[in-house]
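On clarity, I found the account of how folds are encoded harder to follow than it need be. For illustration, here is how one protein appears when written out as sequence plus structure tokens:

:::
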Amino acid sequence: MSPLPLSGIDQPSPLEPDVAMFEQHPAIYGLWRERLFRDDTERICTSLWGAMGPAPGAIVLEVGCGPGHYARRLATRFESLLAVGIDNSEAQLRRARARAQARGLRGCRFEQADARDLPHGTGSVDAVIVSRLFTVLRERERVMSEIHRVLRPGGRVFIAEPRSSLRTGLALELMRLAARAANLLSHSPSAPGACPPATILDQAAFAQLTESQPWSRVGHQADRWYQYAVCEKRA
């Protein structure tokens, strides 16, 4: 894996998403994830495995999987792969399991767990996917350390983070409005609770985070809306 070019990225901007909304209204977030957010499946496959694809029996973790978008897509594409989705939200995981069951997918499963304390042994997984997680999750380097720990020697992690505060903020606001409307229609007295502000990482912060572990190689790439890193563990 050769280094990827690093282009200029916006400065960090605080946002105020309502994380409780993801638990109260998993269908709303699932719809936004499928329809509004970028689908990087092709980029993930190329970055992690190249043209050959994963080895038979390979294990890939989708950390912060939400409704399990990538775990389900990869399990559909590679029948010999085991894709494991990790998330703290049981409501999101129920949706992920239901979607996988509806499609008859046997090569994926979903586990409730903390990204800062992954329930997997050292060197036990072949690849990791992290998409749109570090904007809302604190203790980022601890998560990176856990990812590095569970990867086998030579394994890779694919990281994708938004770089536009305006675009991300608009998507979050639309989700908030949809959640409020759903509460009103259901006559629910509850309202999504606030969480600490999310942050769009700038170029320096993203590079510092992704290079915080003793990788053998790190590649960076960015376009107008997203920034990416692919990190390989020393063999």
In short: The radius of gyration is 17 Å. The longest strand covers residues 151-162.
